[in-house]
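JOB MANIFEST
job_type = single_chain_structure
chain_count = 1
residues = 360
[input]
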Amino acid sequence: MKGTFRTRVIGAAALMFSTGAGCSLIVSGDVPEFQCAGTSRSACPSGQQCDLSSHKCIASLDGSITDPDGGDQDVVTDDARDSASDAPQGPEDLGAKCRLDVECKSKLCASGTILTTAITATTGPICTTTCCTSIECPASFVCFNGGTGGGYCVPKTLAQRTPPASGGLLGGASCVANTDCRSGLCSGTPKTCLDTCCALTDCVGATTCRLASTSAPGPAHDVWVCAPADPGATKLPGDTCTSSSECQSGNCIGINFGRICRPPCSNTASCRAVPGFAAGHCLYGSSGNDSFKFCFVSTRSSDSDAGVMCTDDTTCKSNFCDAELKACANVCGKDSDCAPNESCRPSGVNTPYLRCVPRP
């Protein structure tokens, strides 16, 4: 487990995070300039269109496609450029190659920035959707979390997993082989089904939703998974702690005043279901380069609601000022975490944090 945790911090006010290693870090997070949004012709200069997965202007599909990041591994090959007229123009299923959100039935075309190049290296961007556990994905898909702030349904072959053709045991269940588990992963001693999770209730058996270093596929990322707690970890969410190894959640974080064991979360409701966090909400933190969500209780009561314009996290009730929309937003893990007229979508700038936005 990496030893430094941090929040998104913007402006002069900052939240201080630390783990058992005892180090703290304040991170700069100036809100960047607004990038393109929408599919109208006016969204970008002539001859270009807005890529809704990266919110950057790229060449139109009837011309050559350039790499807006100048080196992302998900660039379109020369052969693909030559056959641009054959590019998909209608709704594509999950796992299909894509360039724009509008090409996907899920309205989410994800590049390596969101899925990591471990998933997209051979395909480029693909259609996906958000998830907390693999059971929320279609058959032959699993929920993959690459430390970018959330889980996404990806084809089992790209995730190098071997789930059963149908069904499968839930995260935390005892297993013998990978093919026993819905996630396609059976590991540990004793062997249990390893799967992603967003809340304590996502796991079964003698496991809990805990923060752990997981490599499936590699490289390893610190993410929430259903797994046995560390030996000797007896402290529950809300208990004071000095080290993450003391916490069953594997997550000991201090914010302003002392450290406590903090549980995972998907949205505000998942936090408020945990004893001791009835007034809490979901907040983003980081472990090294990996992003994850945990429950936080704010001491303020008069901050701005979601949708109100903001310049930094400290003015929002959610403690989250979205860098793309420049407005307060609610953190989420999947669509059902949001209002009926909203979807859970990754931010198009900076880290692709998941937040509730108006449904596309």
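[summary]
The longest strand covers residues 280-287.
The two ends are 37 Å apart (CA to CA).
exit_status = 0
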